[in-house]
What we know:
- Helices cover 48% and strands 14% of the residues.
- It has 839 residues and is α/β, with parallel strands linked by helices.
- It has three domains: 1-79 and 94-127 and 829-839, no CATH class; 81-91 and 133-478, 3-Layer(aba) Sandwich (Rossmann fold), CATH 3.40.50.2000; 490-709 and 768-809, Glycogen Phosphorylase B (Rossmann fold).
- α1 (24-37) crosses α2 (48-77), α1 (24-37) crosses α4 and α28 (725-731) crosses α29 (733-744).
Amino acid sequence: IQEPQLQGQDVGMQCEDDRTGIGVETLKRAFLDNLFYVQGKFPALATKHDYYMALAYTVRDRLLQRWVNTAAIYTQEGSRTVAYLSAEFLMGPHLGNNLINLGIYNQVQQAMTELKLDLKELLAKEEEPGLGNGGLGRLAACYLDSLASLEIPTLGYGIRYEFGIFDQIIRNGWQVEKTDKWLRYGNPWEIARPEWAVSVKFGGRTEAHKNAQGRYQVRWVPHKVVLGIPYDTPILGYKVNTANTLRLWKAEAPESFDFEAFNRGNYYGAVDQKVTSENLTKVLYPNDETYEGKQLRLEQQYFFVSCALQDMLRIMLRQKLPLEQFHEKFAVQLNDTHPAIAVAELMRLLLDEHEMDWEPAWEITQKTFGYTNHTLLPEALEKWSLKLFSSLLPRHLEIIYEINWRFLEQVRHKFGTDEGRIGRLSLIDENDGKFVRMAHLACVGSHRINGVAELHSELLKKTTLLDFYEFFPEKFTNVTNGVTPRRWIVLSNPKLANLITSCIGDSWIKHLEDVQQIETFAQDPGFQKEWQQIKRENKVNVASILLDRTGVKVDPDSLFDIQVKRIHQYKRQHLNILHAITLYNQIKQNPNLDITPRTLIFAGKAAPGYYIAKLIIKLIDSVADVVNKDPDIGDRLKVVFLPDYNVKNSQPIYPAADLSEQISTAGKEASGTGNMKFAMNGALTIGTLDGANIEIRNAVGAENFFLFGLTTEDVGALRLTGYRPWEYYEANPQLKQAIDQIASGYFSHGDRRLFKPLVDLLLDKDPFMLMADYQPYIDCQQQVSQTYRDRDRWLQMSILNTARMGKFSSDRAIREYCQQIWKVKPVPVQLAAAKTGDG
Ligand code: CR6
């Protein structure tokens, strides 16, 4: 089929009509129209969900105008484009964000009020696409927002999982996982594009054949073929006309019904192929920072990468660009190693399908890719057994061997035959079985390698990727993570946003550095009072959520001390719980103790197979149970675990925090992004010198940050000299008491076995050094409590935190990626220009 060439004059609307207008009356009419014609309902029969859908379609219409214009201009101009490849995109609900970015939040709120509807209730109806585990997937989402806001042509490529990250419920203190059926009631934000489907091969073998010119080529004869169907979601920038595309791929069988099998009378067999093909994109692997060597996971990775690269080639052909310019048309970023197979796949496409020679193909490949590393944890470093790899991707293994051979030749050339070094650099791990090392493939196949915070990037060069750094130092760089102020301040904390805007105007929403201007108000009593009032209202809101979801009543005037993130030993939620137990014991020992009342709030999911993490949830819940029910404690201490942490549930949390817990073992948290969301919303941080905490502390000032604990060097040195956790336990009566209580069943109705694995781990190996950091942490928390009592001081610190967080906008991060890695420039979109075709 000949694809029609898009002409500027064919797209765009001439006047404000029901699909583009943003006046309150127009919005009301359009909304009722969508309720009728899309949902097939009239108000008397409509459910809240119908209203949500009608509003979503009303907003989508307004996006489409911009989306189509954006596509037209990119096509006309053949713009250089960022392709962000990520196995995870944790987008969060779209509706509220789109209202903010379109600049129509207030009009829509008024329109709904006039129709006797509550916008907040409708927003709450949206089922979020939870297509990610945590930080890495959410980072991808913040980056798409910034890319669109900065008018950078971008395609986000990923997987349309039918089931995203599981829903978490807490039953008897234990995490129970429920399937996330996010597509159940339909997804108004996506448009399927079956006309751009591609085929992806798996398994089989390779063979040589002669091409038309009589040259030998390799042909891959696969065992099976799966179709990839793209589903597009528009990603609108903040108050610009740029609407980029998030393109997620769904797997389908090429022929959904096997007539031969059917005619043989085998009905179930006839649909079998369909079922197995569709399993490919059925579910997101729920592990954060541990890879599972499962075949299906490698299939998912290869599937979406192949779809993405074939799609880019289609775009090049359509724009009549020669393939030699691939790296000029596309800057492809690998979000961790999950898409690293792209290096071999692009080589295969250029060599086998487009008959290019090795050298030019390799040059294009290396100039195309950038690789972002997101962790130093060894259990996260992906490697695939040769057996699995060769059975699934036989041609790619051949290509990887060739890349490796040529690469190691260069290594020998530079360093001579240093077999140790060669073994460490090889793309093939031969230490204990044979594996393909995906991080090595990503390093060799990319022109830039970056970590996600200064410390992390330095540690990469000194440890995990040291040999690569020595071989090509010029590839290494750092881009510290950032988060979007649109979702994480304007949408999540509207009252604070309004206060800031009323003082300094609204430029800060696009240029977060400008928020610095509120520093002049940091000591202004009137401003402080409003600041405090807003924090209190945000806390009242979270108190009512906690009551509603957990039945625990908390005091909004207590210090809200919050740790929300995935549950992981290195993040040390259990250190936080040791502090809770310590406070509890202090009050029990001295019932009249005048302490700063605290509410400790936890939330986060544990990987379903991560036993110790699940036990930590059980411990939090068990301690909460004892503390909250003890009449001696009263309102002085409450501990709450809020179930089912996700983007939607997190949005009210950050604005309500007084204290942000960022207490990972130094050297383990690559960056963190929750730390940024808290500080932007005026929470003070208690934290270690880890990840982006270090840069946050430098930005807000050491006097406005509660620092404690071992440094990365201390951790290394202590490990070398011999770390003996039980010595800390023996020497510290408070610590001993807390541990003994956990061990003796004080929090588990006398059950001594329940927490034994955790206690044994802490006293024996304590791999994350809680015992060493316990007392410094407790002392630092004591300082927090003291400071909180000085309301003016605390408020000033809080204001200064927000004021100095400008650097941590994802806009800054994206500008750095654009300059250092992608070399790509904004392409502004004018609606009028696209209409007349004269842009
Ligand atoms: N788990 C890091 O641990 C970082 C994000 C985004 C993580 C975290 O510190 O902020 O990536 N790493 O860069 C991985 O997912 C591998 C994460 O979210």
